[in-house]
């Protein structure tokens, strides 16, 4: 039951993974909008804890979406390519907290987005994990594999509403560590904020934000057994099978259980949305009927104008519902323009008579 931080696009989610709160923007091209001193990276710097941001095929520039942070250019020495990551591993000098990104560099072939091969991305991830397992860093490492937001069209589980922007869709979280419980299914409600909470907990830092404090870090800690470490499992073509045999007998019998929580629509309802579909249907029905009965043109125009006004207002004032209202904005705008042209032509003819 792991959720993305924001019910929205990629950049807001990736930024929330760094700040511990949902950003105020709702696009993938925001720049210089959040002070760097509001990030987990700044908190680490202030407490003398090393961190690094490693990007596949790094070009030397500020990797997206780190440009969203004001003052990020002063921390360019923390950005590296994956070659540097490998060197740090072998030298036993990896930063205490590291982000490894297969996106945002010059080449995104391993980011698992269309049209790239998902298997190629999985192979590259396994290669990076194998390098960590072979390194001296392994016995003090936990790897969290996450995704920025959901890529599907449906999930029977409604994301819990903790604020005006989320949580977002349910996504995978894989925990790889010598101390991770084998075959464990974590039934606690966790999110990207929980991973920030794990950093604060592990290095005894104050909670970065209230969202981080309330993200159930204890639920995440249940996925670990620090009394025994397990040897690494190096994946290679000779042992890459599914499922991989367990290292120890497992008697958990754990089953994924979803605890129902109030969703966004019930916590932050938007009643105006309920009338948009009827308005659009009525408007287009009147528009088509007006080809035979011209006196219906004004009624179609009025219905579509009201739909356009309501959907445009909700779209501009409530970003979460923009996914729903943008369809009505476009459809009612198209219908409104068509009915406006028809009305002008027809009433010009009436005036000429």
Automatic annotation (TrEMBL):
GO molecular function: phosphoric ester hydrolase activity
Coiled-coil ranges from the UniProt annotation: none
InterPro entries to which the protein is assigned, alphabetical: Alkaline_phosphatase_core_sf, Phosphoesterase
Pfam family, one: Phosphoesterase
Swiss-Prot/TrEMBL keywords: Hydrolase, Membrane, Transmembrane, Transmembrane helix
Keyword Magnesium: no
Transmembrane segments: 272-289, 296-315, 327-344
Domain of life of the source: Archaea
Protein name: Acid phosphatase
Organism from which the protein derives: Acidianus hospitalis
Source lineage: Archaea, Thermoproteota, Thermoprotei, Sulfolobales, Sulfolobaceae
